[in-house]
Every structure is written in structure tokens, then in C-alpha cells.
Design a protein that fits this description.
Structural class: mainly alpha
Largest sheet: 3 strands, antiparallel
Distance between the termini: 24 Å
Helix content: 40-55%
Number of strands: 11
Oligomer: single chain
Number of helices: 18
Radius of gyration: 25 Å
């Protein structure tokens, strides 16, 4: 029996677990979806469907998934498709397909639905317009009538002077009469958020205390474009609030923007979630993962026969968040061992040349097992479990594999299902 399978079986057959209790476990995941969104841990993975899912995105999704499951919370997939010009056909479907293939399916998503939908930002435009209107009324935002040509000239002038391009806040000082006059000829201006006052300090759960004085280094940012679509800053704040997100686990590239987001939360009168910015996943030589690398997309690994667990194993082993790194961990073990306080600021260096080694370890020898061999292995396994009769072991396994307390012999079912399906069914029970 492959060592990976034996580990799964031992976790399933822990003392005190009865077939009836196992049946309740299998139904628990569905029942948890009806809980009050504000009462539980709720996290989200919010990629843009401008490309297919790659290893960097999988790592962010995985850390959100295992954090949610460790705290009996919900893992949400939200697609940030507001940049309509860069959408890639089929990318939205690919992202959800690959999450399911990897064994980290969302609890709520565009495909599955849920209580906080819709889960496509392009279908939530009314919420962003309401928030922008509230900011306009309070004076925290203002309409901007600057043309793309003027903004491009500002950018070129700054670069010519070796300065960081920034908006000069020209429209901030327009009087009400001037605004009314301009609205008569340009009824759909962009909306900018006033960056005023001291940025709030915040304690990131990975990077510690932070404060970025964005007003001193940036111009007022656009939060709603003239076409009615939001920018990331407004959309993420509005969606995280309305979806009841309790913790935001996202890439460290967004750390410097968090002070800006907290100012938006303050202006809207909303409580902000807790933030944890995850260090980047890099190539072994320290270079950034690029979508131009054909071998970083999950489709590539699925098509070439790699086990999903091997990918999950290697992207967690090259990073932090666990007491120790070890090969061959199952998804339930990753959930049990994960500790957000152990995530460090250091980038994770990914060595894809080691992936076949992880795959071989998880696949294990002897995948073409016969019923006779399996019966002997299962008997050996149950003999090593104190206080559990072999007959009860078989009942537990039968419920895990089929959901029924009666049926064909367990070894026969395991041969019929195959190692991959057996592994996935046991993992599903353990993650419930």
C-alpha cells in the first residue's frame, strides 16, 4: 500500500470515530454554508481572469483554504473581472476547474453560488456606485474631468524629471459651480478618493505593524472609472465588506496599498478585516514567476499526470507557515499543521525540478494493488490500532468510500475505485 494512503487511513481510523459519527462528518460541510457570514472566519481568493491559474495563485488559494478549514470557516472564490479589456476567454472557468482539481474547492463561487453573491465583480456594479455616491456626498471623493491626454502628459513630465508619476489633484479644488458646469458636457467623470490626513497604522498578521503615508507620495486615486467600473481599491473594500470577509490573505505586493484601503474603510464607516500579506512565490533563482513560463500553469501539471497533492506539497515545503517542512504531507495534515503566525516575510523559492520526487513519494510503489494484497495490508493496519476491531475498521472505511454501512468488501471497492479516487474520498471526509 502506498505510504501516502496508509497515512490517510490512519488519520481516518482515529480512536473514537464511529460509522454514525463519520456519516455526520460527511454532511457537516454542506450544513456549514448556512452560517451567519459575520460569525465565522471567511476568507477569499480573488484572482483576475486575465490568465489561467498558475502556481503563485494556487499557493494564495491554498493558504486561504487551509486557514478557513482550520478554523471551520468558509473559503470564497471571487473573480475580479472589472478590467474588461484584458479578460482571457475560458480563464474564469479554468480557475474554478483547477481549484477543484487541486482539491481546494471553494465553498462559495460563481459556479456554486452562495449567500453573498454574485461572485463576479462585473455583476456587482450597483454596489460600487452606491459606495462612490456615499463618498461623494461626504466629501471624501470628488469627480475628475481630466482627459487621458492630460494624465499622460503628467506621467511623461514626471518621468522626464526622474520623478514617480502621480496625479496632481487638480480637480480636487473645483467649486460646486465648476463641477456643475463640467458635468453638463461630461456627465460621466471618473471619481477620485481624497487622500487626506494621517494614514492609520495597522498590524499585519505576517509583517507586523505598518503604516504607509500614501498622501505624501501618491495623488488621489481613481476609485470609479468613467465607464462605471471600479478600480481594485474600491472594489476589494466594498466586496470584502458586503461578503463579510474576516481575514484578507493576499500577496505582499498589496501591503503598501493597505493604508489606502483602511482610509476607504474609515470614510465609509465600515470595520476593516484583519490583513495577512503572504510573501511572494519565486523561482529557484529568485526571479518572479511569470505567466510567460508555460510550465507554471496548473493545466500543464494536470495534463502531464502530476498528483494535485504533489503540487500542494511542494509549494508549502518551499515556504513557511508550518512547524517543520516535510515531504509527503496530505491536505488534512497541512490543515492541522498550519499556523499563520509561523508565516515569515521571506519569499518562497520554488524548485520545480523536485516535483517528480514529491509525486513519486505521494504516488508510492505498488499502485496496482490486488484485493488479496489490500486485505493483508488492511488487516495489518487494523492490528496496529489499539481498541478498534478489524470489523469496525472495515465499517468505517466502507462509510468513507461509499457513504453506506453495508456493501461489497472494502478491498474490492478500493481496487474498483483506484488509488486516486480512494485518496480523494478519504480526504473529502477528513476535510469535512
Amino acid at each position: 500500500m502506498p505510504p501516502h494512503m496508509a497515512v490517510l487511513l490512519k488519520k481516518l481510523l482515529q480512536p473514537g470515530r464511529s460509522p454514525a459519527a463519520l456519516g455526520r462528518l460527511m454532511g457537516r460541510r454542506e450544513a456549514s454554508l448556512g452560517t451567519d457570514p459575520g460569525a465565522a472566519v471567511r476568507v477569499r481568493f480573488a484572482p483576475s481572469p486575465t490568465g489561467f491559474l498558475h502556481l503563485g495563485g494556487l499557493r494564495t488559494a491554498l493558504y486561504n483554504y487551509i486557514f478557513a478549514k482550520k478554523h471551520q470557516g468558509s473559503f470564497i472564490l471571487r473573480l475580479e473581472d472589472t478590467d474588461q479589456t484584458r479578460l482571457v476567454p475560458g480563464a474564469a472557468e479554468n480557475i474554478e476547474d483547477m481549484l477543484e482539481w487541486a482539491g481546494v474547492p471553494p465553498d462559495e463561487s460563481p459556479r456554486r453560488g452562495g449567500p453573498a453573491g454574485p461572485y463576479l465583480q462585473s455583476q456587482r456594479l450597483a454596489l460600487y456606485a452606491q459606495a462612490a455616491e456615499a463618498l461623494l456626498k461626504s466629501g471624501a471623493a470628488y469627480p475628475c474631468f481630466c482627459s487621458p491626454q492630460r494624465l499622460e502628459l503628467l506621467k511623461k513630465e514626471a518621468l522626464r524629471n526622474r520623478q514617480t508619476p502621480r496625479y496632481d489633484n487638480r480637480c480636487r479644488s473645483l467649486s460646486q459651480a465648476q463641477v456643475a458646469q463640467k458635468l453638463a458636457t461630461d456627465p460621466k467623470p471618473a471619481i477620485r478618493f481624497r487622500l487626506e490626513g494621517e494614514a492609520p497604522a495597522f498590524q499585519d498578521l505576517v509583517y507586523g505593524w505598518n503604516r504607509h503615508e500614501v498622501a505624501s507620495v501618491e495623488g488621489d486615486p481613481v476609485i470609479l472609472k468613467s465607464d462605471g467600473f471600479p478600480t481594485y481599491h474600491l472594489a476589494s473594500v466594498v466586496d470584502d465588506h458586503h461578503m463579510g470577509i474576516s481575514h484578507v490573505l493576499r500577496g505582499s505586493e498589496w501591503l503598501v496599498s493597505t493604508s489606502k484601503h483602511l482610509l476607504l474603510y474609515q470614510a465609509l464607516g465600515w470595520q476593516a478585516p484583519q490583513f495577512a500579506h503572504l510573501p511572494l512565490l519565486l523561482n529557484r533563482d529568485g526571479s518572479k514567476l511569470s505567466k510567460r513560463q508555460g510550465d507554471i500553469f496548473l493545466e500543464h501539471f494536470a495534463a502531464t499526470g502530476f498528483l494535485p497533492d504533489a503540487l500542494l506539497d511542494i509549494i508549502t515545503n518551499c515556504g513557511s507557515g508550518f512547524a517543520e517542512n516535510q515531504m509527503g504531507r496530505t491536505l488534512p495534515e497541512l490543515i492541522t499543521q498550519f499556523d499563520l503566525s509561523r508565516v515569515t516575510c521571506h519569499s518562497a523559492l520554488l524548485d520545480l525540478e523536485k516535483l517528480p520526487e514529491f509525486n513519486r513519494l505521494l504516488e508510492g510503489p505498488g499502485t496496482n494493488l490486488t484485493q488479496d494484497v489490500l486485505n493483508r495490508e488492511l488487516k495489518k493496519l487494523s492490528d496496529g490500532l489499539e481498541g478498534i476491531k478489524h470489523s469496525n475498521v472495515m465499517k468505517l472505511l466502507r462509510v468513507a468510500l461509499s457513504g453506506q454501512q453495508q456493501g461489497p468488501p472494502v478491498a474490492e471497492m478500493m481496487v474498483s475505485l483506484g488509488p486516486k479516487e480512494v485518496r480523494e474520498r478519504i480526504q473529502k471526509v477528513l476535510c469535512s
